[in-house]
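Incident review: delayed structure delivery

Summary: a single-chain prediction request sat in the queue longer than the usual turnaround. Root cause was a stuck worker, restarted by the on-call engineer. No data loss occurred. The affected request and its eventual output are reproduced below so the record is complete for anyone auditing the incident later.

Affected input:
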Amino acid sequence: MRSSKFATFSMALFVFLTLCFTNVNAADMADSGWVNIWKGSFDGFKVYFRNEGYISDPTKQSIFVPEGDSIHVHSGKNGLLVYDSSLSYYHVRVDYRWGNVIGTANAGLMPHTDLNFSAITSDNRPRSVECNMRTDEPGSIWLSYKLGPYGATYVDPNDGKQHLPKHLGGEYKEFDPWLGDGRWWKAHYPGGQKPTNPVGVWDIYEAHVYGSDSIVIAINGVIINRVYDTRIPNGRTPGAKLTEGGIAVQCEDFEIYYRDWHIRSLMGCMDSNYVEFGDWYIKDTEPSSCVTHDSLIGCMDEAYVEYKPSHTQDTSPTSCKTPLSIEYPQFPESVAQFTANDMLKVNQGGTHKLEVRDANGTVVFSEQKSGNTVYDFSNIGKAGVYFFQLYVSGNVYRNKHMLDF
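Output delivered after worker restart:
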């Protein structure tokens, strides 16, 4: 029986995901949590082949072949290139391009791949969710035969194997990995058109993975399929929630190329007051990844404008950028001078303004006057270092002054 939380979860993410599945350039990716996991070698990866299992040395095979920043997948075997790290909440994207293929070709992106699978079966992969790239039905979902997981989606009421989003009238349906024809379903193409490019042209395949709650699939920025409630088989029934696993790309005896394989975690600090904050995070870690409050990070040298006494750690490179003596000249005596601990005399005609900030940058005094006059800021009433900024005759002067009440 479907839990009501999946309906809520689906609708809450609909608009969010429509915005997230977009093309971004490399600089933007680096600034928004993306990590390039394929760097041209098998470091951090493992290889699985049908009837062989995970092989001991990925460099001693000729199916997944590094070619610069790309992976050239040759025909000849069925298997997986697996990123050997267990992931739960994340966004993954990879470019793929078909090679010399005729007719229907098949491959896939595989979230929730079992990293510890040791049995050798006639199926071509460990437990995993195959998000298909096949040329005739891109975006279809296949659950690993018998190994699972169990999964569900919303389907067209008139076609129990055709995904249809709930907001378009789809009905919830569970799929059974033990049933050969009951373990897969087709994608939904908005407007009826596949979002893929012609064979031989690069496409972008993406998945948002939310633990066991859902997996959302897009090609070239178009959302086309969803998986809900992934569970590990307990015999012939759904068991514990499948919340994590490796991520893999697949070969199914067809030539294909992969490149630009990136992942970003969706788990991290969600409080913008902390240095670790990322606006793409949707779930915090336990214990919280919010560690360093941003008020503690910054310039620790009081000779600079950016200095605050609350700073306990500087940035790298240092956040001390503007020496006080460079930003603005100090008050010349001909312009202004402190006549008492809490008074500043201005020796200028015309209109002028004095602004006083505390060490945290907060304005604690601001007043505008005209002609030769005295500013009295005794109402500040709290001892400490203050920064004085005087606007007069089109010039700006600055000074640092200790008030002792």
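Verification: The longest helix spans residues 4-20.
Action items: add queue-age alerting; document worker restart procedure.
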